[in-house]
Each structure stands twice: as C-alpha cells, then as structure tokens.
Amino acid sequence: MSRVCAVTGKGPLSGNKRSHSMRATRRKWNVNLQKVKVMVDGKPQTIRISARALKTLKKSSI
User: Fold this and answer.
1) With 0-12 CB in 10 A as exposed, 13-18 as middle and 19+ as buried, what is 39?
2) Coiled-coil intervals in this record (predicted)?
3) What is the pLDDT of residues 33-54, one digit of tens each?
4) Distance between CA 45 and CA 54 in Å, rounded?
5) In the chain, where are the structural domains located?
6) Which residues pair with 23 in a beta bridge?
7) Which tens digit of pLDDT belongs to each residue from 4-41?
8) Number of neighbours of residue 2 by Cβ within 10 angstroms
9) Is the pTM of this model over 0.90?
C-alpha cells in the first residue's frame, strides 16, 4: 500500500539528512496518513487520508 493521501494525492517528499559535519545522506519525509471511515455513496468506507486533509474536511462539514 503506497503512502498517498486518497483525497489530496500528497505523497512522500525526499531530500537530504544533514549531520553535524554537514554530511548529506538521503532521507524521506512520509505523509501523516490516518485511517478514517467516510460515507461514500451511502456506504461507510475506510480510506487513508492525510492529517491536514482530515482537518480541512472536519472544518468544512459542520
């Protein structure tokens, strides 16, 4: 299962980890995915959604 948000399509970012001596090694920042039950076409479905998208959805659907 890939680390991609079902709503926004956000995926992991990559870059360099820097040590104290500024030595660069590759690293990855994963998306903060949460499992949430959502009603889709009248049926409850479990989807993996990013925490930011979940916050936005909770804010918009009062």
Assistant:
1) exposed
2) none
3) 999 998 889 999 999 999 999 9
4) 15
5) 1-53
6) none
7) 999 999 999 999 999 999 999 999 999 999 999 988 89
8) 7
9) no
pLDDT of residue 40: 86
Topology adopted by domain 1-53? Ribosomal Protein L24e; Chain: T; (2.30.170)
Q: In the numeric block, which tokens belong to residue 35?
A: 């499992």
Element (H, E) at 42: none
Identify which of 33, 58, 59, 62 has the alpha carbon closest to the alpha carbon of residue 48: 33
Q: Tokens for 24? A: 């660069």
Answer whether residue 62 shows pLDDT above 60: no
Contact 45, 29 (CB under 8 A): no
From start to end of the chain, where are the E strands?
13-18, 24-29, 33-40, 43-50
Instruction: Look at residue 58 and give its three-state secondary structure.
Output: helix
